Amino acid sequence: MNNNTEEMKSLTDWKEFDALTDEEVIAAAKSDPDAQPVTEEEFKNFRRAPQVPGGNFLERVRALSKENKVSLTVRYDADIADYFKNQGKGYQRLMNNVLRAYMEERKGSQHA
C-alpha cells in the first residue's frame, strides 16, 4: 500500500458472526433473495462445464448463456433505452432480468 491509501477495515463484527448458530445462519441465507436454495427442477437442468461445447471455460460459459435465447427487434421509449444503456456493460442482461422478475411475479399472482 502506498502512504496515501488508508488501510481497508472490515465492517463485519466477527464476534457477533462467530456467535451465530447454524439455524441463524440458515435463516439469514434464506432471507437473502440472491441466496435461495436450488429447486429440484433447476438442479435437473444443471450440466457440468465439460458437457458444454466449446474450446475453453469462457467459451463454454458463453454457450450456456446463449441457450434458450432468441434475437428480437424491439422498440423502447428513448428514455428507457438510455437508462439501461447508461447502466454500462451488461445492460441487455439487466433488461432481461427486469423483464424476468416482472414475468415471475405475474406468473406467481396468476396461481394465487
Order of helices and strands: HHHHHH
> How would you classify the helix and strand content by structural class?
mainly alpha
Number of distinct helices: 6
What separation lies between the terminal Cα atoms?
A: 56 Å
Number of strands: 0
Radius of gyration, whole Å: 21 Å
Query: The biggest beta sheet, please?
Result: none
Tell me the strand percentage band.
under 5%
Helix content: 40-55%
Mean pLDDT over all positions:
79
Low-confidence stretches: 1-5
Characterise this structure.
The protein has 112 residues and is mainly α. The chain is 53% helix and 0% strand. The chain contains 6 helices and no strands.
Can you tag this structure with a few keywords?
112 residues; mainly alpha; 0% strand
Give the arrangement of secondary structure elements.
Layout: H1 14-19, H2 22-31, H3 40-44, H4 57-66, H5 78-85, H6 91-110
Outline of this structure?
Helix content is 53%, strand content 0%.
